[in-house]
Every structure is written in C-alpha cells, then in structure tokens.
Amino acid sequence: MLTSWNPLLAMMLTAPATFALVAAVCKPLSGRAAGRGGALVAGFGFLAAAAMAVNVGREVPVTATLGGLGVTVDRLAAVLLLLVFGVSTVVQVFAIRYLAGDRRAGWFTAGASLLTSASAGLVTATTLIGLAISWTIAGIALCLLLGMYWHLPAARDGVRRTATAFVIGDLALWAAVVLATAHWGLVDLLALNAADLAGPLVPLIACLVVIAALSRSAQWPFHRWLPATLAAPTPVSALLHAGVVNAGGILLVRLAPLVSTDAARILTIAAGAATLTYGAVVMLVKADVKGALANSTMAQMGFMILTCGLGLWAATIFHLVAHGFYKATLFLSSGSAIAQRRRASARPPARAMSRRRRALTALTASVLPALALYAAAQAISLAPGQHTAEQALLAFAWATGATVTWGWLTRRRGIAAGIAAATLLFAAAIAYLGLITAVGHFLAPSLPTPTAPAALAWSVAAAVSAVLAGLAVLRRMPATAIHRAIYARAISTGYIAPSSPTHLTGARS
C-alpha cells in the first residue's frame, strides 16, 4: 500500500463536495468566482487522477478510508476518474463564459462540483453500500442541475421525468443492496467473485442491479427522461457524460460477477439492442441539433449496455470513455454546429449524382473500410483466434467508416479521392485497433474475464447491424407511402409530450 498517495486520494474525492457546499452557501462566490473555483478544483482532480493512473500502471492500487467507507484507485478507476474530472473541468471552464451574468451560475457550479464528487465516489467505492450512496447522490445532483431554470415549464417537466426514472432505479439498486447485505454481509467489491455467489436470490439481485443501470443510462423503458432534459443549459447536457448517463455501464462493470446470471444478461442485451435501434431511428428524424445529440447519446448508451450484456468489459470501458469525451464536446459545440449549418444552407446545392455513380460510391464506401480494418488487424498481428467476441464489434466500426467515406466521396470525386480515403481509413484503423489493444492490456488486471461466446457476440452484432443498415437504406430511398409512414411514426415516437398541463399557462417566475 502506498500511504503517501492516501492524502491525495482523499483530497481529490472530497474537494469537489466541499467546494459545492461553499459555492451553495456563500453569496460572494457566485458567478465567475465560483465558476473559476469549481474549474480549478476539477482540474486539480484531473491532474491527480493522471498521476495515479501512471502510478497504478506500475505498482499496486491506492486505497484510503473516507467516513468509514473504503475507496481505492486501480487501473479501471484511474481511467474512469480521468473521464469524470476531465469532462467536469472542460465543462466548468466553458460555463464561466456561457453563464456569465446569469444569477444561477453559482448554483450550476455547486451542482457540478457535487456531481463530480459523487461520480468519483462511484468509480472508487470498495463496498456495495458506498457505491449505492455515491450513485444516489449523483442522481440528486443532476436533478438539482436540471432545475436551474425552474420557472420554465419544460425544465420542470424534465426534472419530473428524470426524478421518476431515477427513483425507480435507485429503489431497485437499494433493494439489491439490502438483499445482498442480508445474504452475504458487507459486500466487498474488490473481493467479489462469481464462484462465491450462490443461492436463489442471485438472479433477483442481478436483475435489480440491471434495472438500476437501465434507468440511469436512459434505456428502454426509461428512455424518456434524457430527451426531456434539453431545457437545461448546454453545460448541464455536456456534464451528463461525466459518469451520469454512462453510469449504467460503470455499475454493470463493477458488479460484473453479480450480473452474469442468464436472466440479467438476457434483460441487458434486449434493453441495449432495443434502445440502440430506437435511439438511432429517432436521431435520424430529429430536426434540432440538441435533440439529435440526445437521441444519439441514448443509442450509444444502448451499445454500451449491449456490450455489458455480452460480457465484453474492455469494449464497454473503451466506448464509455471515448463517447463521454466526444459527446460532451459535441454538446458544447452545438451552437457552432448550428451556425455552420446555417452557413452551409446558404451555399449553392451540390451537383446531384447519377444513379450509377451513386451505386458505385455506395459500393466503394462499403468496401474500403472493410479492407482497411482487415489490413490493420493483420498489420498489428490481431490473430483471428484472439479476442474473437470483441472482433464482432468491428461491424460498428465498419459502419462508422462507411458513413464517413460516403460523405467524403460525395464531396470529392475521382480516383485521387478514393486513394486518399483508403490511406486515411487504413491509418485510422491502425490507430483504432492499436488503441483498443493498448487500453485492453492496461485495464486487463482490473477487469472481469469476458464471458460472451463468440457465436452470441457475432449473432447480436449482425442482427443489430442488419437493422441499422435497413434503416439507412430506407432513408436513402425515394419517398414512398411506406417511407412517409415510417418517418411520421418515428417523429411521433420521438416527441416528448409534457407530463403536466402547466405548459399551457406559460412560465411563472
């Protein structure tokens, strides 16, 4: 045990919560001063997490005790702490200018700091009770942030929907905690072993944990709360990705030995696949940028939950962290995206492609990413017998590459454009597969053993890919009665009706 790291760990976890209290009760710290202080505290946490990531990569985990509850930083926790404090730092720095002059800026800083501290506790808690406490505090902090503009009916509606989903999930989690504690005593997450978990209560406890994860990550049937939060300021939408909307994946990974029962896995796979498809469909028909981003987040969280159901824990963490940073950035740049779209709409339309050229472009966009991924796998010696289940997920990487290639080739035509696309795709595939391999090796000592049969992983990936491919083809087809009916149905399904009649009377201060 490295005792010299213990004070740093304790300070990193408690400083945001302490500053949240200061920002909430001290009026002189409102506005810019509070924002700068919150960003400074989060930045300190990020630097401390980076130092610990380097340390635990070479030596043993760092442990400490806070208020009678144990916390530890191993390789998994170090990576997740980088996500939590990294996103929090960037968002709070952005909010200093975004909320300049807003009388609720101090409230945002207090809520953001509390959420950061709770999310950090979630990824470092060593007991099931400590994890559940951090989980609940993070949900409360988010509801407080969503209620910043309580005078707006849409904001109140978002808080009601979010609180309802979170209460259901939290009750499920605490029921699992009570049952597990009564059955096994104080559950130590570091010593959690599937071989030691037996009894008729195990499937019930596992399903309760999965329900909690589904509610927090906006999975079906709890998917309505996330799109209803868009009345909150943009920094709040970005801060969701600092261990809140993606907390479902964190929970399932940390309790992997407990949720590996057949019933829990079936529930997880079904909910993840359904939400992935639903979110992708609604995202394609959303006209507003933030609405499309929210449904895209829902779909991506469906993918994350799906990998949890398949037992592909390294893929879950890689996707969770990459998506958290990427989507938080997209939310913060949503205003710039709207301005860019307006400028693009003012330009003359691109020259239409003939049917033959469109078919050739589609074929090229499909083949080039597949060849690039295959060549990259051979170049980095990713043998076919290794990571067989994880390789099934490359179908989604191929879909992303095909979409990007299609966009490139519709703007740049000719052989030179194809050669440039192939070169860039190969370089990107090398970087992608190399990064996945490196992250997997780094996290391996802290992750459970993958449990997915290769056949199951390939089957689920193929089924979801086929559905998404069918939707993409349907979107490109000329308008027909079926096309218009599906489009209208997707629009109506994605519409979030107010949960109370107060929207008819207008906002009241």
Automatic annotation (TrEMBL):
Domain spans labelled NADH-Ubiquinone oxidoreductase (complex I) chain 5 N-terminal: 69-105
Membrane topology, record value: Multi-pass membrane protein
Membrane-crossing segments per the record: 6-26, 38-56, 76-100, 107-126, 132-152, 164-185, 197-215, 263-285, 292-314, 360-380, 392-409, 416-443, 455-474
Membrane among keywords: yes
Annotated coiled-coil segments of the chain: none
Predominant place of localization: membrane
Domain NADH:quinone oxidoreductase/Mrp antiporter transmembrane: 125-400
InterPro entries assigned to the protein according to its UniProt record, in alphabetical order: ND/Mrp_TM, NU5C-like, Proton_antipo_N
Subcellular localization(s) per the UniProt record: Endomembrane system; Membrane
Key words of the record: Membrane, Transmembrane, Transmembrane helix
Pfam families listed in its UniProt record: Proton_antipo_M, Proton_antipo_N
Source organism superkingdom: Bacteria
PANTHER family: INORGANIC CARBON TRANSPORTER SUBUNIT DABB-RELATED, NADH-UBIQUINONE OXIDOREDUCTASE CHAIN 5
Protein name: NADH-quinone oxidoreductase subunit L
Native source species: Mycolicibacterium pallens
